[in-house]
């Protein structure tokens, strides 16, 4: 069942060579929130100077670190707080050197060499040499965004995560609110986000992520952020947990000088431009405000910094919905009677196809034929109210009367026009203290809390006053760290950390359909159901009640000592993670009313009754499908251990070798009720003898407590080097490779707890309900004993199932995913302000998880007549439904217990990434600074992996054929062949010699921009039909013989591109006339590869303009204007790619969104008081 694609011998040769080397990858200063400064001290002839004293003083706090050179003339200072420094270098018989203006950033390895002149120590020589722009210490790739960039670059929305896009290798970065809390998802160098989340997030050295989905947590506002560092390739052995990258954010601290800000930023509808193809602007009104304050409590000893920020937003929602008028509510559908269609007579007449003219009518809910629910004959004149078999459902009538308004007066198309405002509010608090306990101990404590409450209409809802989903979250992060200067050459840093993210999504009002007279039995907290009526209204709801999140307790210690040519790091970390997911699922009930053909009893089909018209079915309470779930309470508790050693070995003054080793263990999860399941076909559980055959539980032979065995073989060797051939810090060659293990997210561990027998997830499973008032008693086909199956409670001795049972299992012997990284490159500093870096980057992920349906229907090649939709459950390999259990596969006997889907989370998927990454950095000089990169890359995966959805939900993509996974080899969903980003800041102060008026008008302005250009991401072309009859409509088509897949070229004409982005005539449905045979069993699988074409490219320029106005001494006011997509480029979205939807096939109907969530220009105006 596991895919073996992408297993290339070259990759394993690299891996084996790395392991045999026994080394670890290059070091990024082995620090999260501090910096390193190192170098060589010589005399004017180049001879080394041993035992020289190097004194580093942080100018803002007078923090002092003293170190000495060794017998090789080398010095190294680790765990330095970031900021500005003055360095003093002295030795007996030499003049003292003083260097001011040294700026150290998080995770930086600053190489600064000094040459002493002979003379008296009382003689001071001041130098102004700047820190080199090239990295002479290791081969770590990434980027540090310092405070100047955070302060100067445009950040519309005030989310610092937006600046992650400035780092080469980051292919996608977005904030999502999936289960109640905002989580940051980042794709780095072709990595996967499929329940693994291959990026680790830190805040002030403590973990800042939620293990449920391995996503980054909320960050403080930009005024509270000092800087952040992103590491994307071959990072230090200190870093574990994930294998693709590290994002470390550092907040500001107090200093000896009082400093801070007061700010407000505003976005308004009238500031913005219209979205593409829209004549009106999208309503928008957002206020962001707050303040920061930092300073000394005791000079040079105790410092404090604090911050508050808030957001207030009201999102207006507009409604334009067809609703039934007074006649239709009474059962009179004469205004919907087809006028251009000849209605047939007799049984089956209700299946009469409407003419094109009747289909084109949308007023009053369109044209349709209403049939008698018993005789299945068309009702004369569409007057259901006059039909003797018409019995209005009192619950439907009550819902109409209370929650479905009449058409807006004056409208002639039965539409309701209205609006509703929904609030969004967040508040955040940060407090941070630094204490210089002694000359050897520096203590830092920080606490950050963010609270949010946002109200949204459930997806698809098109009327006010029904259900509102309220997303409420609270995030808390606390860190305590101590830096202990053990000696001039040894330093230790220890962290204690706690991170909590807790979120919920509840629905208001807290009533159920029972309040309308229904017998719907809601297990758990009540909420209104989801009711959709085709061509009319949708009273939507979403899964209410999920309380999701985790508590993470961490302890981390890193010790560094310099011995001769070696800078050695050893350390360990341990985290206890307690994940939880409590959800009501769809306990409220979902009811779908669709326009459908009435069953023809004469042909022996099912005898349940409907009218064939959705709105008429609603009036009599006969849904096409009804679904209902039971609540779920899932937990996963596990430990993460890490032990590491790192040696930065300066072999010669020109060459540094970075060596080390890391060992990781993530324990298998535990749950107090042991609610995990594995799949072993044909084996009966001894723990739960009445369970479905093949479903085993902890305690069964070979099934441990967590469902899987803990792996203890996660040894990660890494190696890297930096070679400075001329010893001038201007030309550096670097490279390395390493192994990086990932952890598995809590949501993956807990997924089996969401399914039977622990919980019921059977949305849209029941199709024989004939009353909203008496749901269960009138449907003895779906509900055993004509009674409600709720409350549905897990009973280990006698587990209950609602068949067909869809189940999820952990894979026995599951292995943890890992990532192999490699890079090689050269850096060249051309001037003191300009440097270029060229790198090859490779990243290869293995053992990635994918949901595999081990019980997918098998295509019957011996008896093709069996390959129908009604026979899905008869063609499953395990516990298949025989005809003897009922009248047919479509109508099994009541009480039958059998499996439908059996999803096993398997570890067999892979990704490959190869990229050329070129970066340019120009420090601020001559009024301008520039940082930019260009990436040419290719990322492949063995299946669609970049999704955070669960199987069975819209967020997940299932393979076309589970028995032919080789068809799924594809470009990753975030693959961009070309990507370029340029960030620039321009300070046009050219008028220093002009008169005062000109100086005041033109000097002091700053203009910044972020320019983004990238090629299109791939998209998947599907047939939209279940051609291979496996129960999933995700099949792909074939290419028409003689044709080829291609994107059309219209010379850049947007109007033509959007109407037919690709050659739509090149595709045909498998089995259709003129189409070639497919592949797989029965030749019914489409041969078009997934993600075979690319969508439109993207270009965007975000810009900011601001100026400071002096108020009093250090107090100033800053006016600031910022905009996304300042030139309002129209970036086209992904075209329609479903063959069975010809009106949308190849058509682009939407604009691509910016990272801030909007496609059009959005302007943000603000003001800041700075001091």
TrEMBL record:
Tagged with keyword Signal: yes
Alphabetical list of InterPro entries matching this protein: Beta-barrel_TonB_sf, CarboxyPept-like_regulatory, Oar-like_b-barrel, TonB-dep_rcpt-like
Compartments, record wording: Cell outer membrane
UniProt cross-references to Gene3D superfamilies, sorted A to Z: Carboxypeptidase-like, regulatory domain, TonB-dependent receptor, beta-barrel domain
Keywords: Cell outer membrane, Membrane, Receptor, Signal, Transmembrane, Transmembrane beta strand, Transport
GO cellular component: cell outer membrane
Principal location class: membrane
One GO term of the biological process aspect: siderophore transmembrane transport
GO MF: siderophore uptake transmembrane transporter activity
UniProt KW Signal keyword: yes
Span of the signal peptide: 1-30
Domain TonB-dependent transporter Oar-like beta-barrel: 251-1164
Membrane-related topology note: Multi-pass membrane protein
Protein name: Outer membrane receptor protein involved in Fe transport
Organism lineage string: Bacteria, Pseudomonadati, Acidobacteriota, Terriglobia, Terriglobales
């Amino acid at each position: 069942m596991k895919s073996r694609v992408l297993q290339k011998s070259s990759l394993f040769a690299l891996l084996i060579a790395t392991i045999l080397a026994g080394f670890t990858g290059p070091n990024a200063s082995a620090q999260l929130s501090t910096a390193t400064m190192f170098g060589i001290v010589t005399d004017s002839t180049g001879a080394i100077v041993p035992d020289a004293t190097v004194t580093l003083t942080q100018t803002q706090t007078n923090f002092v670190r003293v170190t000495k050179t060794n017998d090789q003339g080398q010095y190294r200072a680790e765990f330095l707080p970031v900021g500005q420094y003055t360095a003093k270098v002295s030795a007996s018989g030499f003049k003292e050197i003083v260097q001011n203006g040294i700026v150290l950033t998080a995770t930086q390895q600053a190489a600064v060499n000094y040459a002493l002149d002979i003379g008296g120590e009382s003689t001071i020589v001041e130098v102004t040499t700047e820190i080199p722009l090239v990295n002479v210490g290791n081969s770590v790739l990434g980027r540090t965004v310092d405070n100047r960039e955070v302060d100067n670059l445009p950040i519309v929305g005030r989310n610092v995560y937006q600046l992650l896009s400035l780092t080469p290798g980051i292919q996608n970065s977005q904030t999502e609110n999936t289960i109640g809390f905002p989580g940051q998802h980042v794709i780095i160098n072709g990595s996967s986000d499929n329940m693994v989340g291959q990026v680790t997030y830190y805040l002030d050295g403590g973990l800042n992520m939620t293990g449920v989905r391995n996503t980054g947590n909320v960050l403080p506002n930009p005024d509270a952020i000092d800087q952040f560092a992103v590491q994307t390739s071959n990072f230090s052995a200190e870093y574990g947990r994930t294998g693709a990258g590290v994002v470390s954010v550092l907040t500001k601290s107090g200093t000896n000088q009082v400093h801070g800000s007061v700010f407000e930023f505003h976005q308004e509808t009238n500031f913005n431009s219209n979205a593409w193809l829209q004549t009106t602007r999208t309503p928008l009104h957002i206020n962001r405000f707050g303040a920061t304050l930092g300073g000394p409590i005791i000079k040079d000893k105790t410092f404090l910094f604090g911050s508050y920020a808030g957001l207030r937003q009201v999102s207006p929602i507009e409604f334009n919905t067809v609703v039934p008028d007074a006649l239709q509510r009474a059962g009179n559908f004469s205004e919907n009677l087809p006028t251009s269609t000849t209605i047939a007579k007799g049984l089956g007449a209700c299946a009469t196809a409407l003419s094109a003219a009747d289909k084109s009518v949308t007023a009053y809910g369109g044209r349709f034929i209403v049939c008698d629910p018993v005789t299945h004959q068309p009702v004369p004149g569409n007057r259901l109210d006059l039909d003797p078999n018409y019995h209005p459902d009192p619950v439907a009538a009550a819902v109409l009367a209370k929650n479905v308004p009449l058409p807006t007066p004056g409208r002639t198309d039965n539409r309701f026009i209205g609006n509703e405002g929904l609030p969004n509010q967040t508040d955040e608090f940060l407090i941070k203290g630094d204490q210089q306990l002694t000359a050897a101990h520096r203590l830092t404590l920080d606490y950050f809390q963010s609270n949010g409450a946002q109200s949204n209409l459930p997806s698809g809802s098109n009327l006010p006053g029904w259900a509102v989903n309220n997303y409420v979250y609270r995030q808390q992060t606390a860190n305590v760290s101590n830096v202990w200067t053990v000696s001039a050459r040894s330093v230790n840093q220890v962290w204690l950390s706690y991170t909590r993210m807790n979120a919920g999504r509840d629905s208001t009002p807290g009533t159920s359909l029972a309040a309308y007279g229904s017998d719907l039995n809601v297990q758990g907290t009540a909420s209104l159901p989801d009711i959709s009526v085709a061509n009319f209204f949708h009273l939507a709801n979403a899964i209410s009640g999920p309380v999701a999140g985790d508590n993470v307790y961490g302890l981390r210690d890193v010790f560094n000592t310099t011995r001769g040519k070696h800078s050695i790091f050893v350390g360990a970390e341990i985290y206890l993670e307690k994940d939880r997911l409590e959800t009501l699922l769809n306990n409220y009930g979902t009811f779908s009313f669709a326009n459908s053909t009435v069953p023809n009893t004469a042909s022996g089909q099912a005898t349940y009754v409907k009218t064939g018209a959705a709105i008429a079915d609603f009036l009599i309470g006969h849904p096409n499908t009804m679904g209902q779930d039971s609540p779920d309470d899932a937990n996963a508790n596990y430990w993460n251990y890490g032990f590491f050693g790192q040696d930065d070995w300066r072999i010669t003054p020109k060459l540094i070798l970075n060596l080390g080793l890391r060992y990781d263990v993530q324990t298998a999860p535990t749950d107090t009720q042991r609610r995990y399941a594995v799949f072993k076909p044909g084996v009966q559980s001894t723990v739960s003898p009445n369970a479905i055959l093949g479903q085993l539980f902890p305690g069964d032979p070979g099934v441990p407590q967590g469902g899987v065995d803990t792996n203890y073989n996660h040894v990660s060797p890494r190696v890297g080097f930096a070679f400075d051939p001329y010893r001038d810090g201007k030309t550096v060659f670097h490279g390395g490779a390493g192994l990086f293990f990932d952890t598995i997210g809590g949501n993956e561990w807990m997924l089996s707890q969401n399914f039977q027998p622990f919980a019921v997830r059977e949305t849209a499973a029941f199709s024989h309900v004939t009353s909203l008032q008496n749901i269960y008693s009138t449907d003895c086909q779906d509900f055993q004993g004509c009674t409600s199956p709720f409350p549905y409670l897990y009973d280990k001795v006698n587990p209950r199932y609602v068949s067909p049972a869809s189940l999820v299992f952990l894979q026995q012997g599951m292995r943890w995913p890992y990532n192999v990284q490699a890079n090689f490159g050269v850096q060249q500093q051309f001037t003191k302000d300009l440097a270029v870096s060229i790198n090859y980057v490779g990243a290869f992920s293995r053992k990635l998880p994918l949901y595999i349906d081990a019980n997918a229907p098998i295509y019957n090649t011996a008896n093709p007549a069996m390959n129908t939709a009604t026979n899905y459950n008869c063609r499953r390999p395990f516990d298949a439904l025989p005809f003897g259990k009922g009248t047919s596969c479509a109508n099994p006997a009541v009480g039958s217990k059998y499996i439908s889907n059996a999803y096993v989370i398997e570890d067999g998927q892979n990704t490959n990434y190869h990229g050329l990454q070129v970066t340019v950095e120009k420090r601020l000089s001559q009024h301008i600074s520039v940082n930019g990169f260009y990436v040419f890359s290719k990322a492949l995966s063995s299946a669609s992996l970049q999704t955070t959805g669960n199987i069975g939900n819209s967020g997940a993509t299932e393979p076309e054929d589970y028995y032919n996974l080789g068809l799924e080899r594809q470009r990753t969903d975030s693959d961009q062949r070309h990507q370029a980003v340029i960030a620039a800041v321009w300070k046009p102060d050219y008028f220093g010699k002009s008169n005062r008026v000109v100086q005041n008008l033109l000097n002091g302005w700053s203009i910044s921009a972020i320019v983004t250009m990238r090629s299109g991401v791939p998209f998947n072309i599907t047939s939209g039909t279940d051609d291979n009859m496996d129960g999933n409509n995700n099949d792909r088509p074939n290419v028409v013989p003689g044709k080829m897949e291609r994107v059309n070229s219209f010379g850049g004409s947007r109007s033509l591109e959007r109407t037919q982005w690709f050659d739509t005539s090149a595709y045909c449905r498998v089995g259709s006339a003129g189409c070639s045979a497919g592949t797989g069993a029965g030749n019914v699988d489409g041969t078009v590869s997934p993600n075979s074409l690319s969508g439109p490219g993207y270009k965007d320029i975000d810009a900011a303009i601001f100026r400071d106005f002096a108020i009093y001494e250090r107090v100033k006011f800053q006016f600031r204007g910022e905009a996304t997509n300042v030139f309002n480029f129209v970036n086209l979205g992904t075209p329609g790619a479903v063959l069975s939807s010809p009106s949308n096939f190849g058509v682009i109907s939407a604009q691509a969104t910016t990272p801030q969530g909007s496609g059009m220009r959005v302007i943000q105006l603000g003001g800041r008081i700075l001091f």
